[in-house]
């Protein structure tokens, strides 16, 4: 990456920063724990005064792409346009179906406050208009789609849900910062944009944490861009000036300079 930026794009200065830390900075915090989930990665990253607690960082294999694929599979039972046989068509057709599934996921899917109770409800129906004008009537798939974030076994994965990973990560940190982490849980990335995710996460963590633990979930309305916002804030700080890798430094030292000045 360093070589690409300097030699191909000829940037005057460059730096690499952790995405989760940037999401935290976007909220005006220097300490907290970030649940960062996007299309290709999901991580739980505790941060103490701007520094990652590396020994306590945990990862989930459930990503935004996984949930889109999961939803697409469920949609094959909703309408014949998504049937498995159709999915064997050329890539262009498959891409269109995936784009539709992605759009449904982003616009209509939500995290159930109580998954079992919601499964018994008959009051969950939304219409989605396909590009050809046909309307799809959707119900259970809307809350089933994001549930693997909390129940990975639904995708056949034997691992902890994000709520348990969050608590486990905090438990790996020094006791002095645990209270601060519970009180500063920051959501970041497009895969955390599901309606109801913040409320469900809080309720799940409350049930796992010690009694009387104060838990606050920070869910900015534009958190899909939180890492970018955090980076723009960091670049404006005078203290960041000494962290830049300059073009001359790269020319003199090479790509190993990134290890000396990495944030």
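-> sequence recovered:
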């Amino acid at each position: 990456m360093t070589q690409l930026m300097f030699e191909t794009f000829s940037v005057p200065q460059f730096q690499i920063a952790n995405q989760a830390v940037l999401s935290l900075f976007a909220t005006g915090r220097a300490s907290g724990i970030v649940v960062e989930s996007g299309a290709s990665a999901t991580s739980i990253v505790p941060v103490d005064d701007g520094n990652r607690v590396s020994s306590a960082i945990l990862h989930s294999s459930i990503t935004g792409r996984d949930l889109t694929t999961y939803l697409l599979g469920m949609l094959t039972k909703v309408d014949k346009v998504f049937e498995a046989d159709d999915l064997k068509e050329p890539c262009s057709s498959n891409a269109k179906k995936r784009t539709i599934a992605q759009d449904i996921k982003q616009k209509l899917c939500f995290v159930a406050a109580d998954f079992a109770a919601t499964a018994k409800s008959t009051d969950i129906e939304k219409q989605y208009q396909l590009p050809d004008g046909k309307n799809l009537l959707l119900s259970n798939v809307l809350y089933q789609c994001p549930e693997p974030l909390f129940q990975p076994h639904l995708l056949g994965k034997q691992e902890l849900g994000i709520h348990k990973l969050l608590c486990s990560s905090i438990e790996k940190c020094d006791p002095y910062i645990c209270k601060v982490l519970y009180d500063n849980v920051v959501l970041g990335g497009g895969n955390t944009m599901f309606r109801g995710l913040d409320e469900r996460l809080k309720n799940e963590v409350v049930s796992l944490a010690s009694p009387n633990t104060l838990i606050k979930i920070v869910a900015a309305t534009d958190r899909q861009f939180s890492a970018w916002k955090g980076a723009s804030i960091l670049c404006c700080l005078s203290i960041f000036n000494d962290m830049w890798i300059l073009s001359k430094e790269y020319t003199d030292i090479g790509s190993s300079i990134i290890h000396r000045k990495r944030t």
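Residues 64-149 form a domain with the Actin; Chain A, domain 4 fold (CATH 3.90.640.10).
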